[in-house]
TrEMBL record, chain A:
Signal peptide: none annotated. It comes from the Bacteria. This is Transcriptional regulator PadR-like family protein. Residues 21-88 form the Transcription regulator PadR N-terminal domain. Transmembrane segments: none annotated. InterPro entries: Tscrpt_reg_PadR_N (IPR005149), WH-like_DNA-bd_sf (IPR036388), WH_DNA-bd_sf (IPR036390).
UniProtKB/TrEMBL annotation, chain B:
Residues 118-351 form the MacB-like periplasmic core domain. The lineage of its organism: Bacteria, Pseudomonadati, Bacteroidota, Cytophagia, Cytophagales. This is ABC-type antimicrobial peptide transport system, permease component. Residues 397-505, 782-891 form the ABC3 transporter permease C-terminal domain. Its main location: membrane. The chain crosses the membrane at residues 116-138, 391-412, 433-460, 480-511, 532-552, 782-803, 815-843, 863-885. It is a multi-pass membrane protein. Keywords: Cell membrane, Membrane, Transmembrane, Transmembrane helix. It comes from the Bacteria. It comes from Chryseolinea serpens. The keyword Transcription does not apply. NCBIfam families: perm_prefix_2 (NF038404). GO terms for cellular component: plasma membrane. GO terms for molecular function: transmembrane transporter activity.
C-alpha cells in the first residue's frame, strides 16, 4: 500500500466520508471541531483538503450558487476509491496492533 | 450531535444582514488572491462569520474573521491555488481528452457551416500537397540509384577534364582504354581498380538445327568486364564464379538474360552454351549472376571476359594501347582503401595520364574521381548535371504552390475573423484559455489539411499517369510504404502549422471587451496584409502566364521558322555503322523502285540533327583561313531531296569518293567572299588533299536553335554514308504511309536479316532536339494552370468576404438608387487595382527570367509588349469572372433582406 496519511488527514477524510453529500469547508470544520473538541483554523483545514485532493484521495466539484453566502458557491468534497482503500488499510493496521496488545492494554488496577 | 449532518443549511441566520465582515480584510484577501479561484473559500469565510455572530459580539466575530483570513493567506491551500492558472480548477486543461473531443467537434461544425470556404481551402491545399508529393516521389526515385552497394562511398569513377581542339573545356566521363590497367599496376592505395567497355552488339543464340535466334542490338546491356568488376560491385552468383572471366571467350549472364536466352533450362545445362555477338564473336556461358532488383545505372546483363578483347575483332574498337582515344564506352572505376583520400588519387592519376598521353597537343587531362552517388546525375558528357538543377527547380515549384495554397488559407481564415470574433469573445468570457483557442483553430486547420492530404493521395495516381512523359520511369506511388506515410504525416503537420498558426494566434488574441461590442470588431489595419497576399498570388500567376506565352512563342518559332531545307514527309533510316559493304547503296536502289517514294538519298546524317561532324578545312586566299567546318555527307540527291536552295554554282555530281564540295553561305562569308558566286571554283584543302567548291547553298540549320548555323560543306564521303533519307510522295494518306514503311522494312530485312529496323520522320527527330524546351513549356503551362486556379480560389474567397461585410452598404446604396452595374463596378474596382499592381510587379521579373531563358537560344523571338498586354487582360478577366459570382449575387440581393436585421 503506497501513500501515507497523517492523523489529521485521516480525521478530515473520515469526516468528509461521514458528511456524505454535504461535505464542504464550513461543515467539515464544524464537525471536526465538535467531535474532537479542538479549534482548527480554516487555513489549516483547506491545506489538508488540498493535500488530500492532490493525493487523489478525494475529489471535488463546485455546487450551485446559494443565497446564503452572498451568492458564492460551495465546493463539495467526496471520497474516492483510493481514499476508501487507504482508510481500510489504516484501520486494518490498527486492528492488528490492537489484537496484539489487547492484554497489555487492560488498565492495571 | 448530528446537528450539521444532513442539514443542507447548517447555520441559522439571525438578522445580521447589516453587519458585514471587515471590508479591508476581505479586500486584502481578494487582492492577494488575484486570479486564483477562491470563490468557495470566500464563501466559507462569510458563512463562518455569520455563524460566529450568533455566538459572539460583532467585534469578536470581526477579529475572528481577520484571524481566519490570515490563516488562509499563509496556508498551503492558497499557495497551491495561486500556482494554478486562472479558473482551471473548474475547467479542463487544453489537453484533456474531453477538450480534444470538443476541438474536433467544433472543427467539424465550423467546417460544415462554412462549406464554400472549406471546399476552397481543401482544393487549394490538396493541389499543393499533390504537387509536393509527386516531386517527393520523383526525388526519392532519383536519389535511390546505386545506393545499395556495400562500401559505396569508396567507389569512384575515373573522370576528368581536358580541352578540345577549339580550346573549350571538355568534361570527359570515360578513360582511354589502357588507363585502368596502368592505374592498377603503377599506383597503390586502391582496393579495386577495374575498367570495362560498353558494347552494343547484335546478339544471337545458335541452336544447331534451326537458324540462330536473334535478339537484335536494341536494349542490350553488354560489357566486356574483368573479374575485378565483381569485386567492385557485388553480385549473387547462382552458378560459376568471377575467375572464369580470366579466360577469353567466356561470358557471364544475369539470371533474367539467361532465362530469355535459354528459357527454363537448368543452370548446369546453361553453362557451356554458346552466345554469338555481332555474328562472329562466339563465346560460352561460364556463370550466372542474380539481377539486382534495386535502381541502378549499371544494368548490365552480359559480361564478356575482358581478355576476349585482344583475341577478337573487338581490338579494333577497344584500342587497349591507345592513350589518346577516349571513348564514352570505356569506363574506369576505382575503390579506395579505407581512409585514402580521392584528392591524392586525383593527383597521382593525373600524373600517370601526363606520362602516357604524349602526343596530345599539350592540353592536360585533369582527373577528378567522381563519387558513385553523383554518377546518376552526370549521365551525359557534361561537366554540370542538367538534371539536378531541374530537380531542385521542381522542388522549389512544388513548395511554392503549397505556400500559395497556405496563403489562401491564411487569407480566408483571417477574412472570417469578423464572423468569428463574437464566438471568440464569448469563449473567452466563459473562461476559455488562449492556448485552448489556438489549439481549437489549429485543429480546424488540421482537419482540413487531413482532407486535403486524402484528396491529394487519391489524385496522385491519375496525375502520375497523366504526366507520364515528365515522370522518370520507375516512379511509383505506394501509399503504405514507410517513407510515403512519414512524408504525408510531415506534410499534414507542416501544412497545418504553416497555414494555421498565424490565423490561430491572431484570432485568439482578440479581446472580448472589444469583440463583443455592438458595432463588432473592425480590423481595418490588417486589410493590407490580405490584399498583399492577393497581389503576391496574382504576381506569381502572371509570371507563369507570361512565361507560358513566351515559351509558346519560341516553340512555335522553332517549329515554323524556315530552316533552310524541307523536311516534309522525309523519313530516315540508319544502317549498321561499322558495315563496309555496298548494302546501303543496294537498299537505296531497291527503295527507289517502290511506288509512292519521291526520292531517296544515301547520306551520313540529315541536314539537322544531334550528330554534327566537324573538322578543320584550310583555304588559302589572301590569308589562310583554317576553321572548323561541319561536314554533311550525301550523294547527288541530297541537296534536291531536302530542297536546299542553291545560290550559285551547281550540285555535286554522283561519285563514289569525295571529289568536290558545295559550301553554305556562312562558310562563303567566312572565307571572305562578298558574293556567293566568287566562291565557285576556289580550292579547299582537307586532310592533305584539295577539292574545288562547285556550289554555294543557302544557310540551313544543322543543330538545335540553341546553336548558331555553322560554316558547312556538303560532299560525298561515301565511306561514311550509312544513313538513308527517303522522301515520300506528299499525296499519301496516313495508311498508305504506314504501308510504305512496312515495305521499306521488308527490303531492309532482306539485306539485314539480323538487324532491328528503325526509321523516323525527320520532323520528329528535330522535335526531339527541342524536347527539353517543349517539356519545360508544358510544365510552364501546368504551373500556370495551377497557380491561376489557386489565385482564383483566393480572390473568390476574398470577394465572398468583401460582399459579406458590405451587405448593409450595398443595401443602403440600392435604396438610394444605385443600379446593379454600379454596385458590381464598386465591388470589382478594388480587385482590379490589386491585379494591376500584380502586373506591375510580375512584368519586370518575368521579363528578366524569360530573357535569360531566351538568351540560351541562338535563334529566338523577341518579347513583345503584347505578351504583357495579353497576360494582363487575361489576369484581369479571370479575376473579374471569379469575383463576379459574388458581386453579382450581392448586387442583386433585395435591400429589405439585408437592412431589416440589426
Amino acid at each position: 500500500m503506497k501513500g501515507y496519511i497523517g492523523e489529521f488527514e485521516e480525521l478530515v477524510l473520515l469526516t468528509i466520508t461521514s458528511l456524505g453529500d454535504n461535505a464542504y469547508g464550513v461543515s467539515i470544520k464544524n464537525d471536526v471541531e465538535k467531535r474532537s473538541d479542538r479549534k482548527i483554523s480554516i487555513g489549516a483545514l483547506h491545506s489538508t483538503i488540498t493535500r488530500l485532493e492532490e493525493k487523489g484521495l478525494i475529489k471535488s466539484k463546485v455546487g450551485e450558487p446559494t443565497h446564503e453566502r452572498g451568492g458564492k458557491r460551495k465546493r463539495f468534497f467526496e471520497i474516492t476509491n483510493s481514499g476508501k482503500a487507504i482508510l481500510h488499510h489504516v484501520k486494518n493496521l490498527r486492528d492488528e496492533l490492537w489484537e496484539l496488545s489487547k492484554a497489555t492494554l487492560i488498565p492495571s488496577k | 450531535m448530528g446537528a450539521f449532518q444532513g442539514d443542507p443549511n447548517p447555520f441559522q441566520m439571525k438578522d445580521h444582514t447589516r453587519i458585514e465582515p471587515p471590508q479591508f480584510a476581505r479586500k486584502l484577501f481578494a487582492w492577494y488572491c488575484r486570479n486564483a479561484s477562491v470563490e468557495d473559500l470566500e464563501g466559507d469565510m462569510e458563512e463562518l462569520f455569520y455563524q460566529n455572530l450568533d455566538r459572539m459580539s460583532p467585534v469578536k466575530a470581526r477579529a475572528k474573521y481577520c484571524l481566519q483570513i490570515l490563516s488562509l493567506l499563509f496556508s498551503y491551500a492558497l499557495r497551491r491555488r495561486k500556482r494554478e492558472p486562472f479558473s482551471s480548477r473548474q475547467n479542463y486543461t487544453s489537453s484533456h481528452p474531453a477538450m480534444i473531443k470538443s476541438y474536433f467537434k467544433i472543427a467539424y461544425r465550423t467546417i460544415g457551416k462554412n462549406k464554400v470556404y472549406s471546399v476552397i481551402n481543401v482544393l487549394g491545399l490538396a493541389l499543393g500537397i499533390c504537387a509536393c508529393l509527386i516531386i517527393y516521389l520523383v526525388t526519392l526515385h532519383e536519389f535511390s540509384f546505386d545506393t545499395f552497394h556495400p562500401d559505396k562511398e569508396r567507389i569512384y569513377r575515373i573522370t576528368g577534364e581536358t580541352k578540345n581542339p577549339e580550346n573549350e573545356k571538355w568534361f570527359v566521363n570515360c578513360v582511354p582504354a589502357p588507363a585502368p590497367a596502368a592505374v592498377r599496376e603503377e599506383i597503390s592505395g586502391f582496393e579495386v581498380v577495374t575498367g570495362f567497355h560498353i558494347l552494343n552488339p547484335n546478339v544471337s543464340i545458335p541452336d544447331g538445327v534451326n537458324p540462330a535466334k536473334s535478339f537484335g542490338r536494341k536494349n542490350n546491356a553488354v560489357i566486356a568486364a574483368e573479374p575485378d568488376y565483381f569485386r567492385l560491385f557485388q553480385y549473387e552468383w547462382l552458378t560459376g564464379d568471377p575467375q572464369t572471366l580470366n579466360q577469353p571467350f567466356k561470358v557471364v549472364l544475369s539470371e533474367s538474360r539467361a532465362r530469355s536466352f535459354f528459357g527454363s533450362l537448368p543452370w548446369d545445362k546453361v553453362i557451356g552454351k554458346e552466345v554469338v555477338y555481332d555474328d562472329s564473336l562466339r563465346v560460352t556461358v561460364s556463370g550466372i549472376v542474380k539481377d539486382w532488383d534495386k535502381n541502378t545505372d549499371f544494368p548490365y546483363t552480359d559480361f564478356i571476359s575482358f581478355t576476349t578483347i585482344r583475341h577478337s575483332f573487338l581490338k579494333n574498337y577497344i584500342r587497349l594501347d591507345d592513350w589518346n582515344d577516349t571513348r564514352h564506352s570505356s569506363q574506369g572505376f576505382v575503390k579506395l582503401k579505407p581512409g585514402n583520400s580521392p584528392a591524392l588519387a586525383n593527383t597521382l592519376i593525373t600524373a600517370l595520364f601526363k606520362k602516357y598521353r604524349k602526343d596530345n597537343d599539350g592540353a592536360p587531362f585533369l582527373i577528378s574521381l567522381q563519387p558513385l552517388r553523383d554518377i546518376h546525375f552526370f549521365r551525359n558528357d557534361e561537366a554540370e548535371s542538367n538534371f539536378l538543377p531541374t530537380l531542385y527547380a521542381l522542388m522549389g515549384l512544388a513548395l511554392f504552390i503549397l505556400i500559395i495554397a497556405a496563403i489562401n488559407f491564411v487569407n480566408l481564415s483571417t477574412a472570417q475573423s469578423i464572423r468569428r470574433s463574437k464566438e471568440i469573445g464569448i469563449r473567452k468570457v466563459l473562461g476559455s484559455l488562449r492556448l485552448s483557442l489556438v489549439v481549437q483553430f489549429l485543429t480546424e486547420t488540421f482537419v482540413l489539411t487531413f482532407f486535403a492530404v486524402c484528396l491529394a493521395g487519391l489524385l496522385v495516381k491519375p496525375v502520375l499517369s497523366a504526366m507520364g512523359s515528365y515522370i522518370p520511369a520507375g516512379v511509383t506511388f505506394d501509399l503504405f510504404s514507410l517513407p510515403t506515410l512519414l512524408f504525408l504525416l510531415l506534410m499534414t503537420v507542416g501544412t497545418s502549422i504553416l497555414a494555421g498558426l498565424y490565423p490561430a494566434v491572431i484570432l485568439s488574441s482578440y479581446l472580448p471587451s472589444a469583440s463583443l461590442r455592438a458595432t463588432g470588431y473592425s480590423r481595418n489595419g490588417k486589410q493590407w496584409l490580405r490584399k498583399g497576399l492577393i497581389v503576391f498570388q496574382f504576381s506569381v500567376s502572371l509570371f507563369f502566364i507570361i512565361g507560358a506565352l513566351v515559351m509558346g512563342n519560341q516553340i512555335r518559332f522553332i517549329k515554323t521558322k524556315n530552316r533552310g531545307f524541307n523536311t516534309e514527309s522525309v523519313i530516315t533510316i540508319r544502317t549498321n555503322w561499322d558495315d563496309k559493304s555496298k548494302r546501303p547503296r543496294i537498299l537505296v536502289e531497291n527503295i527507289k523502285r517502290l511506288a509512292g517514294v519521291a526520292n531517296v538519298t544515301l547520306q551520313m546524317f540529315p541536314p539537322m540533327g544531334f550528330a554534327v561532324i566537324a573538322s578543320n578545312i584550310q583555304y588559302q586566299g589572301q590569308s589562310l583561313v583554317d576553321i572548323p567546318v561541319a561536314f554533311k555527307s550525301g550523294d547527288d540527291e541530297y541537296i534536291p531531296l531536302y530542297q536546299i536552295r542553291l545560290l550559285a554554282g551547281r550540285n555535286i555530281v554522283k561519285s563514289d569518293s569525295l571529289r568536290e564540295f558545295v559550301i553554305n553561305e556562312r562558310y562563303s562569308e567566312a572565307l571572305g567572299f562578298a558574293k556567293p558566286e566568287n566562291a565557285i571554283d576556289q580550292i579547299l584543302s582537307y586532310n592533305g588533299k584539295t577539292y574545288p567548291i562547285v556550289g554555294v547553298v543557302e544557310n540551313f540549320h544543322q543543330r538545335s536553335f540553341h546553336e548558331s548555323i555553322m560554316p558547312c560543306v556538303i560532299g560525298s564521303f561515301a565511306e561514311f554514308q550509312h544513313g538513308i533519307g527517303v522522301k515520300l510522295s506528299s499525296k499519301l494518306t496516313g495508311e498508305e504511309t504506314a504501308a510504305l514503311r512496312t515495305q521499306i522494312e521488308k527490303l531492309y530485312k532482306q539485306l539485314y536479316p539480323d538487324e532491328a529496323f528503325e526509321s523516323h520522320f525527320i520532323e520528329d527527330e528535330i522535335a526531339w532536339m527541342h524536347d527539353g524546351e517543349q517539356k519545360t513549356a508544358r510544365l510552364m503551362n501546368v504551373s500556370m494552370a495551377i497557380t491561376i486556379f489557386i489565385s482564383c480560389l483566393g480572390i473568390f474567397g476574398l470577394a465572398l468576404f468583401t460582399a459579406e461585410i458590405k451587405t448593409k452598404e450595398i443595401g443602403i446604396r440600392k435604396v438610394l438608387g444605385a443600379s446593379v452595374t454600379n454596385i458590381v463596378a464598386m465591388l470589382s474596382q478594388e480587385f482590379v487595382v490589386l491585379i494591376v499592381i500584380a502586373i506591375a510587379i510580375a512584368s519586370p521579373v518575368s521579363w528578366y527570367f524569360m530573357n535569360q531563358w531566351l538568351m540560351e537560344f541562338e535563334y529566338r523571338v523577341n518579347i513583345t509588349a503584347w505578351v504583357y498586354i495579353l497576360a494582363g487582360i487575361a489576369a484581369i478577366s479571370i479575376g473579374l469572372i471569379c469575383v463576379s459570382f459574388q458581386t453579382i449575387r450581392a448586387a442583386l440581393a433585395n435591400p429589405t433582406d439585408s437592412l431589416k436585421s440589426e
